[in-house]
Amino acid sequence: MTTPAPGHAHGHAHGAPGAGADSGGVPWAGRTLTPSPFAGDDGAADERVVAALADRDATGPAAVVAALAGTRVFVPVVAVAAGEEASPLTGVTSDTGADMAVVTLQAPDGRRAMPVFTSTAALSAWDPAARPVPSEVERAALSAADEGCALLVVDPAAERPFVVPRPALEALAQQRAWRPSWERDDVAAAVRAAAEVEPAVASAVVERGRRAETAVVLALAPGLDRPALDALLERVQTRLAASPLVAEAVDSLEVRLTTAS
């Protein structure tokens, strides 16, 4: 199902509105129009976001998400033929009969993602035919959730696109601050509770992941054979999956093993 772009009427698909009425047939009389919050917008990227993206290796993803909060982004909308169904090639989804559609992408892990752009130039570099629809990033995050997207991808045509993980997307939509799960003491405590009940686990540490958002590093007693190791990991992962806190705070998880000294 497609969320219409803010301010876009599907008049071509559903018939032109009558005189003195909007695209839904509601009379204009007696209605108050508010000015567009993006009047005079030159389409340039916010300098704070540009700086945060450039410094992301030093400052981390939380600084980028914090810089995005309260800013304007562009959501790409593309034309589709009336009645066109979802296309796995283009990633475009459309309600039957709609003439414009919000674009969604597929992440490598199979989840849906919504692309957003910091500037009109960045969007044009990705798809010159896409229509840039300005939106507060919080509204874009809400639209992404409505579309069933777990991620936002900022400037996907850039040399290094930035992926806003699911917990950060939810934080943006709710207009609250976000911290990565590997920096949270409560997540670390939940991981320890799930892992250190095992006699063979000397310690469990949470840190930034390599292939996933967050890594759980288990220091194990030496001498475990493969069946015992597999059973231990299954028990730990089952406990982690059952934790509401871990489910809410962690976007993706990997487990790394070391030998306890």
Q: Could you state the order of secondary-structure elements as H and E?
A: HHHHEEEEHEHEEHHEEHHE
Question: What number of structural domains do the residues give?
Answer: 2
Side-by-side strand order of the widest sheet: 3-4-6-7
> Based on CA inertia axes, which overall geometry fits?
elongated
Give the CATH level 1 class of the largest domain.
Alpha Beta
Q: Tell me the distance between the termini.
A: 54 Å
Largest sheet: 4 strands, mixed
Number of strands: 10
Given the helix and strand composition, which structural class is it? alpha+beta
Rg measurement, Å: 23 Å
- What's the architecture of the largest domain in CATH terms? 3-Layer(aba) Sandwich
> Count of DSSP helices?
10
Helicity range of the residues? 25-40%
Strand content: 15-25%
Relevant CATH superfamily of the largest domain: Uncharacterised protein PF11572, DUF3234
What name is given to the CATH topology of the largest domain?
Answer: Trna Endonuclease, Chain: A, domain 1
**Mean pLDDT reading:** 84
Stretches with pLDDT under 50, minimum 5 residues: 1-19, 85-97
